[in-house]
Amino acid sequence: MTRHDLPSLRALYEQPFFDLIQQARETYRAHWPEHEVQLCTLLSIKTGGCSEDCAYCSQSSHYDTGLEKETLLPLDRILETAERARANGSTRFCMGAAWKGVTEHDAKFKSVLETVRAVSKLGMEVCVTLGELTPEAARQLRTAGVTAYNHNIDTSPEFYPNIVTTHTFDDRLNTIRSVQQAGMSVCCGGIIGMGETETDRLKMLEVLCTFDPAPESVPINCLMPMPGTPLSEQPPVDIFQLVRLIATTRIALPKARVRLSAGRTRLTREGQALCFFAGANSIFYGDKLLTAANPGTNADLNLLEELGLGISKPEILSS
Predict the structure, then answer these.
(1) Residues tagged active-site
(2) pLDDT digit string (tens) for 218-249?
(3) Which of 90, 116, 288, 303 could pair covalently with 41 via S-S, beta carbons 3.0-4.6 A apart?
């Protein structure tokens, strides 16, 4: 695979719009079944009270967002949601916890391992996002049945300190290395619309292109401004900038699933269709993403049906 640096990514991104999305479409068709979209369901298994100060997040304890701190959901509640997600067509079940991170010595980590073992028996891909990991914690997650770990880098290294001050960009990369060394696939992308420049977005993509192996999936989130957070007044992302980034990501990382993630409630059906044409082949599916609204399952299924897009089967890693 060609390693893309910032100049080559910029050259792709700044092509005439239709040339760019045509190249992205050709890249997509060369590597993926043309009419399949992966459906993923995301559940917050521990909400609120996070010690980190991520400027976009309603779960941060640094901001008054009206969100109550909750304890870890009981296993039966999680399994019920996972089973319902599977029945609705989801092939990947993602569980997120509002923590700075976990180690293998934490009592809460033992509960997560038990949950992972139970969910993995449902025949779905199991993804978790728990914050920072030690290498041993990553190894134990992999053994328990986690197939993918989500740990977004959010934005460029240069812009990152404007968004988070309680950990560093390198801290994110260290966790990703632990995940890869443990044999889990990496789900890693970012958030656009936080006040960053288009160059920052391309620099974020440049970092993703250095991963070895490449990320298995790349979520591209559009900021959902949350009341009480520092970014609560940010305007919506321009749809053509979003499509350009998706298309450039598809060309630069041809074998990664490009996931159209948070912010779809601010996109029209036509805008989402253009994102799919440009190379997005995965969505978060369900009425809620952690604490943010998401299009309803029926709305998503109706849109996919109108576009002639089917649902991909789960890809379970070998032990």
Answers:
(1) 50, 54, 57, 94, 127, 187, 259
(2) 999 999 999 999 999 999 999 999 999 999 99
(3) 90
